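Narrative of activities, Objective 1.

The group set out to show that a structural description can be obtained from nothing but a protein's sequence at a throughput compatible with the screening campaign. Below is one input-output pair from the validation batch, recorded exactly as produced.
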Amino acid sequence: MKLWGYSSVFFAMTLPCGGVYAQTPPPPTHTFHDPTYHLSFDYPANWTFSQTDHEISTFHLDARSALRNARLRAVVAMPENPFPESTFSGAYVYFSVTPHSSAPSCAKQAVPARSTDKPGASQINDIPFTHGRDEQRNICIVQRDEIYTTNRRGSCYRFDLAINNFCGGEVSGVKNITPQELDQVRTRLESILSTIRFDSR
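Output recorded for this entry:
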């Protein structure tokens, strides 16, 4: 009985250590820093990154409510299709800035004029954002965009979390992307958004 007791204590003490060693390290990331607008964010090192429009995506096709003078500062794209047997076709996080923008104008960008939705409020790393969404429809919903805007020093900072898919899955033999799969993609995009921070000075 005593031996069993000691064995139990030893076994219980070894479990936490085994758990620690079993943990996998977080995936490597890169940091984007905008020296002009004093903002940084992190993104997975294996994602595709660009500061040039039309290189890996087209900003104004995905961010339809962005003003024409909005300047694309950076875009990161998911490098792989996590659901190859679905209609999923791509996911992006866009960062853009509209200079000389008022706070009401900036908040208005978060909800397209054609939408009846009301904007919401979000706090990301103590930064207040207006949050809205947009959808593009063809035969089906071909694009979903979660929009976050905040006004700082007279400029509108905007982040678009865009998820694209194609219609006609019943013809091509793939299945429509499910709400659960969309949520998984959205979570990965939001993990980038959660790293946003402004320079301390």
